[in-house]
Design brief:
With 132 residues, the protein is mainly alpha-helical. 80% of the residues lie in helices and 0% in strands. It has one domain. Its main location: Golgi.
Length: 132
């Protein structure tokens, strides 16, 4: 059984609120205050879940530096009240940071639920990730 600390439980809640505020900010025509608050909550919650050292080592790996710069640059642009441009930068940075995780997630969903579309998507991602 995996032991979860109280800080990690709080981090999951804060991350959930961050995702909620980001979604709400996007639905309300890219409200910069909601997006900025959601970004800060999301990053704070992520830090509480996995720890400060692991968060910094994840974001500042040499091969993820481009994705990190776009993601954190997008957060900074949203904080400077340019929400549309900031969310585009964040989205590109997010996909760049987590592109190695997407084939694993789609493969799990495709195998666990036996959904044909996700299995096919996993096969396509799996074939393209070997070229990176």
């Amino acid at each position: 059984m995996i032991s979860i600390t109280e800080w990690q439980k709080i981090g999951v809640g804060i991350t959930g609120f961050g995702a909620f505020f980001i979604l709400l900010g996007a639905l309300l025509y890219f409200d910069s205050v909601l997006l900025a608050f959601g970004n800060l909550l999301f990053l704070t919650g992520l830090t509480l879940i996995i720890g400060l050292r692991k968060t910094l080592s994840f974001f500042f790996q040499w091969h993820k530096l481009k994705g990190t710069s776009f993601f954190l640059g997008g957060v900074a642009v949203v904080l400077l009240r340019w929400p549309l441009l900031g969310m585009f930068l964040e989205t590109y940075g997010f996909f760049s940071l987590f592109r190695g995780f997407f084939p694993v997630a789609f493969g799990f969903l495709g195998n666990a639920f036996n959904i044909p579309f996700l299995s096919e998507l996993y096969r396509r991602f799996q074939g393209s990730s070997s070229m990176v």
